[in-house]
Amino acid sequence: MQIGEVNDDKLKEACGVLGIYNSCEDAGLGRTAYYGLYALQHRGQESAGIAVTSGNGIKYHKDMGLVSEVFNDEIIDGLCGKIAIGHVRYSTSGSSTLINAQPLVVKYKKGSLAVAHNGNLINAAEVKQELEEQGAVFQTTVDSEVIAFLIAREQSEDISKAAIECAKKIKGSYAIVMMTENELVGMRDPKGIRPLSIGKLNGSYVIASESCAFDTIGAEFIRDVEPGEIVIVNEDGLKSFKFNDDNISSLCIFEFVYFARPDSRIEGKSVHMARMEAGRQLAKESPVEADLVIGVPDSGTVSAMGYAEASGLPFGIGLIKNRYIGRTFIQPSQESRIIGVKLKLNVVKDVIKDKRVVMVDDSIVRGTTSGQIVRLLKESGAKQVHVRVSSPPIMHSCYFGIDTSARKELIGARQKVDEIRQHIGADSLNYLSLEGLIKSTGISEQKFCSGCFCGKYPLEIPMESKEHLFEKR
After folding, report:
1. Is 15 a catalytic residue?
2. Is 449 part of a structural domain of the chain?
3. pLDDT for 5
4. Residue 470 contacts by C-beta under 8 Å, 6 or more apart in sequence?
5. Is the pLDDT of residue 136 over 80?
């Protein structure tokens, strides 16, 4: 168990992807990719990798750990070329081992191919079985290898045609960056469940999960990749192909709640401003007599600021996060879980002592950490602790690349709000309504997947996919 991961009691994003195309050889390509991945580190902390090509074969380096742990100056300086793709991973389906780290690099009759994937294929097991019956041999347990195999087996020399044929066979969520020895490819599923954006850097094209990666490397945001769109970048520039014309977006709404970095823009909207507005909406829906508003850092801080502004209550820093905890491992006993929270968060006693405190967090998944934080606040002198959550109760599992655990582990699915309040020891507990959350984004309800809240998914989930997902965890 890793402090800051399982003990966070948060939903976990699957991955972050990055792609860069230069028209000429770039000795600093690896370093640019490294910085871009660093900006996407919040999307996955289990493994990291970068693959590059100069037009003759693909060179890569990947390993378990954070971006800063996987790469050093010597490795980065060796990753020069014209095209690069990178990946940071948090596993949902597929075990957390080096063989499953990405990018996946394969050699086939037309050269070499590298694939980095964010999302989850709900028909991966079915497609994999069909391919194995045709003689395919798989080396990993990740559904991303299914994508690589489907691309590699296509007869056409045209990567766009191969990508379109692949898209016809796979179902689920995917934001993909791929590269051959002379082309960079970006591909987003027909529902646009996972985000993917295009930027430009000194004449080079960049594709990334979030726009914050562009800011870090100095690239200019151009636009989002549309649902059902494939973009190909080569010596002729950028070309776009649509393999699905539904244009009905079902972006995962949790990008605005928790996953995306607050300095990113998704679907043209500022994540920071959406979270601020969620806090304001929460204050309107669930006011309470109190003396102070605090946020659970870092994800609850912005919404807490919005709550304080709308309620007229002062905002304070009542919890301090230890940012140097790294990837410490502890035993999963009750005592160690409590110590884990204390290692990660510390109460500023002089701020909360003898006060009625509103504690704002973005979500409650299993209810473990929330209860421990409430207890810490009360032990540190808080007179009352009123918990406010800037999203609705999580009542259903996700099958599109987010680690939500089985439904039986979700406290929102098992208990009513007042039962959860008692469980975590709060004086009061209220959640933001789904209507309030959607309003805070400024985006139409029809353009979101909110299945984890309401149980309505943009795609029908086969029973075998449900079993496949959870047996892999």
Report:
1. yes
2. no
3. 38
4. 406
5. yes
- 428 burial (CB, 10 Å; 0-12 / 13-18 / 19+) is middle
Question: CB-based burial of residue 263 (10 Å sphere; 0-12 exposed, 13-18 middle, 19+ buried)?
Answer: middle
Please report, for the domain that includes residue 226, its CATH number.
3.60.20.10
For residue 246, pLDDT beyond 80: no
Say whether pLDDT at 470 is over 50. no
**Residue 333 CB neighbours (<10 A):** 10
3-state secondary structure of 242: strand
Q: Which residue has the higher pLDDT, 365 or 425?
A: 425
Do 71 and 32 touch, CB atoms closer than 8 A? no
User: What pTM was computed for the model?
Assistant: 0.89
Single-letter amino acid code for the residue at 399: Y
Give the amino acid at 205: Y
Instruction: Provide the token pair at 296.
Output: 């659970």
The answer to whether residue 134 is domain-embedded is yes
User: How far lies 399's CA from each of 50, 254, 267, 452, 470, in Å?
Assistant: 27, 13, 22, 9, 10
The mean pLDDT value of the chain amounts to 88
Residue 206 to residues 61, 180, 198, 200, 233: CA-CA distances in angstroms?
20, 15, 6, 6, 9
Q: How far apart are CA 110 and CA 107, in angstroms?
A: 8
- Which domain-ending residue is among 217, 250, 283? 250
pLDDT higher for 330 or 9?
A: 9
- Catalytic pick among 15, 212, 398, 452: 15
User: Is there a single domain that holds both residue 68 and residue 170?
Assistant: yes
What range does the domain containing 143 cover?
A: 12-250
314: DSSP letter: P
- What is the per-residue pLDDT for 2? 33
Tell me the pLDDT band of 330, cut-offs 50, 70 and 90: very low
Helix (H) or strand (E) segment spanning residue 419: helix 417-424
pLDDT tier, 25 (very low <50, low <70, confident <90, very high otherwise)? very high
